[in-house]
Amino acid sequence: MQQRVSGAARLVIAGHTIRHCSMAMGVKYGTLSSGVCIAKIRELVTAYQVETGSAKSLAALASSVDVPLVRRLGMKMLANPASILGQNITAIAALSLQGLPVQDIATLFGIKLRTLKKSYLSKSRRICAEYDKVKNPNPEPEKAENTAVYALPRLNGALNAEHEVSMSALWRGLERWRSVA
C-alpha cells in the first residue's frame, strides 16, 4: 500500500490528477481516493511542496511549455505510452523542457541518476527534439556541396586507374614493399 501511495504522490507532484494516477497504476479510483490513501498522498505532496517552497505542481509551473503537446508527442513516439514508464518519460520531457536539472528530476521521481539516464533520458530527449521542431519550424540551411570532390572521374565509387591520386597511391605502395621483395 505504501508503494502505491508514494507512486501516486510522485505522479501528483509531476502534475497528474488522482484519477489519472489510478488509471496509470492499474488501481481502482476508489482505492486511491479513499480517506486513508488520499490523506497520505496529500501529506507527501505538501511535504514536498514545503521542502521545495512551491505551492504549485511542476506541470503547472511549466508555463512556457505546452504540456498537452508534449503528451501528444509522447503518445505518438512511444511504443506503450499508457504505461507508467511512458507517462514518466513524457513527464520527464516536460520537466526537461521547463529547464529543470537532471539531478532534480531524478530526485523528484525517486530514482537514481544512472537509472534516469539509462532508461528515461534518451526517449525524453527525442520527445524534446520533436517538440522543438514543432515549436520552431526553421528550415535547415542548404549546405554548399564541394563539387570538386564529386566531379572526379569514378568507376563504381573508386577513382579511375589513370587518375593522378590513384597513381601516386599505387606508386607509394609499390615503393614501400619494394625492399621486401
Brief account:
The chain has helices at 2-13, 18-25, 29-32, 35-52, 58-61, 67-77, 84-98, 102-109, 113-135, 147-150, 164-178; strands spanning 154-155, 158-159. It has 181 residues and is an all-alpha fold.
Using the alpha-carbon principal axes, give the shape: elongated
Structural class of the secondary structure composition? mainly alpha
The H/E string reads: HHHHHHHHHHEEH
Rg on CA atoms, Å: 28 Å
What is the mean pLDDT?
76
Question: Could you estimate the helical fraction of the residues in percent?
Answer: 55-70%
Please mark out the parts with pLDDT under 50 across 5 or more consecutive residues, or reply none.
Answer: none
* Total beta strand runs: 2
Question: What share of the residues does DSSP label as strand, in percent?
Answer: under 5%
Sheet with most strands: strand arrangement? 1-2
C-alpha termini separation: 81 Å
The number of helical elements comes to: 11
Number of domains: 3
Describe the sheet with the most strands.
2 strands, antiparallel
Characterization of this structure:
Helix 1 (about 1-15) crosses helix 2 and helix 6 (about 65-75) crosses helix 9. The chain is elongated, with a radius of gyration of 28 Å. A two-stranded antiparallel sheet has the order 1-2. The protein has helices at about 1-15, 20-25, 30, 35-50, 60, 65-75, 85-100, 100-110, 115-135, 145-150, 165-180, and strands at about 155, 160. It has about 180 residues and is mainly alpha-helical. Strand 1 and strand 2 form a beta hairpin.
